[in-house]
């Protein structure tokens, strides 16, 4: 896992077309904005479709 520190308004770029921006910081909570192509699904972990072990291994490679 890559762990980064970002300040308000700073961005993280993933690949060629995904940008994560810190849009609000309030006590122990942050808000992030995610810009991604429409064909890239973005989910919160608690509502994401279940992944099989094989899918997790493929992502890790």
Overall SS class: alpha+beta
Kindly report the average pLDDT value: 89
Largest sheet: 3 strands, antiparallel
Q: Any low-confidence stretches, pLDDT <50, length ≥5?
A: none
The helicity comes to 10-25%
Helix run count: 1
Distance N to C terminus: 13 Å
Radius of gyration: 14 Å
Number of strands: 3
Q: What would you call the shape?
A: globular
The largest sheet has its strands arranged as 1-2-3
- Residue share in β-strands: 25-35%
Order of helices and strands: EEEH
Protein name: Translational regulator CsrA
Organism: Paludisphaera mucosa
Subcellular location: Cytoplasm
Main location: cytoplasm
Break the fold down into its secondary structure elements and pairings.
Blueprint: E1 11-14, E2 18-26, E3 29-35, H1 53-60
Antiparallel strand pairs: 1-2, 2-3
Can you offer a commentary on this structure?
This protein has 61 residues and is α+β, with helices and mostly antiparallel strands. Helices cover 13% and strands 33% of the residues. The chain contains one helix and three strands, in the order E-E-E-H. It has one helix spanning 53-60, and strands at 11-14, 18-26, 29-35. The protein has a three-stranded antiparallel sheet, with no helix packed on it. The longest helix has 8 residues, at 53-60. It is globular, with a radius of gyration of 14 Å. The two termini are 13 Å apart.
């Amino acid at each position: 896992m890559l762990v980064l520190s970002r300040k308000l308004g700073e961005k993280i770029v993933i690949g060629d077309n995904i940008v994560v921006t810190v849009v609000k910081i309030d006590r122990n909570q942050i808000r992030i904005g995610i810009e991604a192509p429409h064909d890239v699904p973005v989910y919160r972990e608690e509502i994401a479709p279940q992944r099989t072990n094989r899918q997790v291994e493929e992502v890790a490679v």
